[in-house]
Amino acid sequence: MSEDLIVIDGSYLEGGGQIVRTSVSLSALTQKPVKIINIRKKRKNKGLSHQHVASVKAVKKLCNAEVYGLYVGSEELIFIPSKLAPKDFEINIGTAGSISLVIQTLLPLSLGIDKKFTVKIKGGTDVKKSPPIDYVKNVTLKILENFGILTELKVLKRGFYPEGGGEVIFTVKPSKIKKFNLIEHTKSDLVEGISYVQNLDVNIARRMRKKAVELLNKEKLNPNIKIETSRGLSTGAGIVLWNDTIGSSCLGEKGLRAEIVAERSVKDLLNERKTGMALDKYMGDQIIPFLGFGRGIVGVSEITNHTKTNIWVVKHFLDVDFEIREYKENSCSGYTIEVI
Ligand SMILES: Nc1ncnc2c1ncn2[C@@H]1O[C@H](COP(=O)(O)OP(=O)(O)OP(=O)(O)O)[C@@H](O)[C@H]1O
């Protein structure tokens, strides 16, 4: 068995949890056993965290994998998959670990299943350094749906750091990926969004929306931002904006004025929009496994270390080459990533 094992160095380049997620997901999909060493070696809290353990557990369940080293803090993991066998189940990350990143791990499995599965995931919906759940819903899943990936996502409860308490129902359906051809942004002027609070005064959400609308109007854009207020186990606020295939967000923090939260998110969106490319810096890395399977070409605003690392991981599993080129046409300024 060890001869067939793909060995991945988890400290490569970005050296984050994404190496684990992509490796395990593609291992299940391609049925190639994998060993990941030096997991998150560059991070302060080395090894697997709760979110990564939950992600691996979820994939393990779906392919009855034999797994070694699956515990919080583990710096080495062996994952030996069996045939994918979709089933419904529940997974509790146990902290405010990102539900979105568990979803990120499950998404590619859509390409290898013959019937749908539904997972109830408990954890954090809006946590730092991960896609807010509204970004997943309105940017990631929408783009992927256009290229054949069929899913349903229902958010039951929001969960913030540190208590979590978020709950979502996520369904993945058997999907057939289409070839990508998504280089430039549509330049639509409709900016949709959600300004939300949990266990906090609704005025915070109103102030975030007001500021975002004011700034977007200044740019002659057409904002349509909803307000959401809820009660839950944890407390928090934030804003997520999306403009066709690009998105941005900012989480509220104690001491950070609502107007600043809105301003940061708008600024990020406008910067992405200015590049004229179809995918923002976050989707740039998230699209990579799908591009590996679907082939074709996408346009991104930036080539991040996450993107380079994900390309490197995918190439361990698929016999594909990713060509990155600068793209400066039609007043766009970014990069294309192509798989022939
Ligand atoms: N604000 C955001 N909006 C959308 N996506 C985001 C945002 N912040 C981070 N992401 C995405 O979340 C993922 C984070 O991967 P990364 O490996 O850094 O995370 P991790 O598993 O939490 O590991 P680590 O703690 O080691 O960084 C990437 O796909 C990145 O694009």
TrEMBL record:
Positions of the catalytic residues: 306
PROSITE patterns, alphabetized: RTC
Domain of life: Archaea
Catalytic reactions of this protein: a 3'-end 3'-phospho-ribonucleotide-RNA + ATP = a 3'-end 2',3'-cyclophospho-ribonucleotide-RNA + AMP + diphosphate
InterPro entries cross-referenced by the UniProt entry: RNA3'-term_phos_cycl_insert, RNA3'_phos_cyclase_dom, RNA3'_phos_cyclase_dom_sf, RNA3'_term_phos_cyc, RNA3'_term_phos_cyc_type_1, RNA3'_term_phos_cycl-like_CS, RNA3'P_cycl/enolpyr_Trfase_a/b, RPTC_insert
SUPFAM superfamilies membership: EPT/RTPC-like
GO function terms (MF aspect): ATP binding; RNA-3'-phosphate cyclase activity
Record bears the keyword Cytoplasm: yes
Domain RNA 3'-terminal phosphate cyclase: 12-324
Subcellular location: Cytoplasm
Keywords, ordered alphabetically: ATP-binding, Cytoplasm, Ligase, Nucleotide-binding
Annotated positions binding ATP: 104, 282-286
GO-annotated cellular components: cytoplasm
Protein family according to the UniProt entry: Belongs to the RNA 3'-terminal cyclase family. Type 1 subfamily.
Name assigned to this protein: RNA 3'-terminal phosphate cyclase
